[in-house]
Amino acid sequence: MLAEAEAMAPLVDKENWDGVLAKTRGAPLTLLKSAALGLGSVSALARTVSLSLAKAAEVSEAAAEAGVALQQLEDYAFSNRVVFFNMVDKNQVQQLSEETNYKAELDEPRELLADVKQQIQALAALLE
To answer: Where does the pLDDT of residue 97 fall: very low under 50, low under 70, confident under 90, or very high at 90 and above?
Structure first.
């Protein structure tokens, strides 16, 4: 999961929001947005990973927190993507961007991605 999250950094830097969306909605990251890492319940997680119920509950909670962070990044990417209806439309947007020297402010998505990575690291630490 951490490798997938780290692979999003260049996508964020290039403002490739469709690429970010694909990563957040693909395996294995999408498991963070489902109950007990896709297993449905804490008891199923405990059996599958051979953890006590208490530890599995901690892991499930950490996964849910990571899922919230991931969802925030996904929401940002979805809100900021640009849909072009044809090449003329795309060329006009690119020309306007060049003429105005538009430079996107990427602090927010970078912070969201850093939060996702931090949450995944906390989850991994629980599983060690």
So the answer is: confident
| C-alpha distance across the termini of the chain, in Å | 15
Rounded Cα–Cα distance for residues 74 and 80 (Å): 10
CA 29 to chain centre: 7
DSSP assignment, residue 106?
-
In what helix (H) or strand (E) does residue 116 lie, and over which residues does it extend? Answer: helix 107-127
The per-residue pLDDT for 109 is 97
User: How far is Cα 84 from Cα 92, in angstroms, rounded to an integer?
Assistant: 10
Residue type, 71: Q
Query: How much is the pTM?
Result: 0.87
